[in-house]
Structures are given as structure tokens and as C-alpha cells.
Design brief:
single chain; alpha+beta; Glutaredoxin; Glutathione S-transferase Yfyf (Class Pi), Chain A, domain 2; four-stranded mixed β-sheet; 10 helices; 4 strands; about 10% strand; Thioredoxin-like_sf; GST-like protein
């Protein structure tokens, strides 16, 4: 949506020192990391604004001016479509926008773009929600539930999704095409969250997925991963 930073309520709460840069409103989460890793990989100048989830800043009127759904991340591109300042929310939409804007991190042919979109939606519709539910019941609710069913249910689904990724990567280095793309950048921070934040790797036998491990190791060695992962912290 068209959004002029100079007149937006966002500027009062999160002042910009570099209004000609992409403005990134984020927190240290898998969804937030997707965008900062992509921005680092693309080498685009951006300015970070920390939106505290603990303080529920994502639900403030200032932030809702950018994203009515009250979720991070979101960006403002001062040089959006037609050269107009443009606000964009939803991490998958932001990744797709950045890939189209730069002509990178996504195949240029129609078939490759469609394939990328499918795997990006796979992450948005399946990996994020299911891994998140696993984390909620396995870590947040640890010791508070007598019924093991929720953990067992979401552990099984998480294991199945690991298997989908592992099967896709059989004989492939990347999820789509022959180089790193936005589909890889969308999925990898959720693997990190599952194993490093939720600490659920042993339960789902994460080390048994050899193709996924090879792919994940390659991504986590990238300079853009190191620089982008903790941007919102």
C-alpha cells in the first residue's frame, strides 16, 4: 500500500535516520529473520526498527497503520512500485516482492517463479503454523499439560514436514532451481527455531534427514545467515 514515511504515525514511534533505505520493522523470530537474511543476501540498504512483541508493540495504532493484522515483519520501501513509498506486510509477500524487485533469489522463467511460489506457500501454510504449534505445546506449555496428545500430534506433523523437505532435496542442492532462493530463506529459519529455540530436534529425530541436514548446513554457513539471523534481537 502507498505509505509516506514522512507523514506516517510510524515515524513518531520508530524514527528513521535513513529514510532513503528500506525500513524493516521486525523482531527476533523465524518470520522476522527471513526478511533480514534476504536483505543481507541481496545487499540492499535497510534500517532496522525493533518491534517488541513482549511489549505488544505490534498491536499499537502506529504499527497497525502499516499492518492491520498486527504481525511482524513489515517493511516500507521508499522506492516501491512506480517509485512511490510502499508498505508491505506478510513475510512471504515481502520475500516475493524483494525477489521481483531485484531479479534475484528466484528463477526468471514463469515455471521457475511458479515453483518458487508453491514452496514459499508451503512454508507459510504448513511449516510456520505447524512448527509454531509444536513449539507452543512442547516448550511453552511444558509441565502444564497432563495430556500428551498435543505434543504427539504436532511432533508427528513436524516430522512429516521434515520428510517432505528431505525428499524434495534428494539430488538437489536447493528447494527451487540451482541456487539459493527465497524458498530456502523462508524455510531455514524455522528449522533453526525448531532445533535451537524449541529444542525439539531429538523428539522428531531431526538428524536422520540427511538431505535436509546437508542443505541446512550450507545455508547456515552463508555470511547473510550470520548477519541476518539476529537482526531483530
Amino acid at each position: 500500500m502507498p505509505l509516506d514515511l514522512s507523514t506516517s504515525p510510524l515515524a513518531a514511534r520508530w524514527p528513521s535516520h535513513h529514510p532513503d533505505f528500506i525500513q524493516l520493522y521486525t523482531e527476533h523470530t523465524p518470520n522476522g529473520a527471513k526478511v533480514s537474511i534476504a536483505l543481507e543476501e541481496l545487499g540492499l540498504p535497510y534500517e532496522v526498527h525493533h518491534v517488541s512483541l513482549a511489549a505488544k508493540e505490534q498491536k499499537t495504532q502506529e504499527f497497525l497503520h502499516l499492518n492491520l493484522n498486527g504481525k511482524i515483519p513489515a517493511i516500507i520501501d521508499p522506492d516501491g512500485p512506480g517509485g512511490a513509498p510502499t508498505g508491505i506486510f506478510e513475510s512471504g509477500a515481502i520475500l516475493f516482492y524483494l525477489a521481483e524487485k531485484t531479479g534475484r533469489l528466484m528463477p526468471s522463467d514463469a515455471a521457475g517463479r511458479l515453483e518458487t511460489l508453491q514452496w514459499l506457500m508451503f512454508q507459510m501454510a504448513s511449516i510456520g503454523p505447524m512448527f509454531g504449534q509444536f513449539g507452543h505445546f512442547y516448550k511453552v506449555m511444558a509441565g502444564k499439560l497432563a495430556d500428551p496428545y498435543p505434543v504427539e500430534k504436532y511432533a508427528a506433523e513436524t516430522r512429516r514436514l521434515y520428510s517432505v523437505i528431505d525428499t524434495r532435496l534428494d539430488g538437489r542442492d536447493w528447494l527451487v532451481g540451482d541456487s539459493l532462493g527465497i524458498a530456502d530463506i523462508a524455510v531455514a529459519p524455522w528449522i533453526w527455531c525448531m532445533e535451537e529455540i524449541y529444542r525439539g530436534g531429538d523428539l522428531i529425530e531431526a538428524q536422520g534427514f540427511a538431505n535436509l541436514r546437508r542443505w541446512y548446513d550450507a545455508i547456515t554457513r552463508l555470511p547473510s545467515w550470520e548477519r541476518g539471523l539476529f537482526v531483530g534481537k
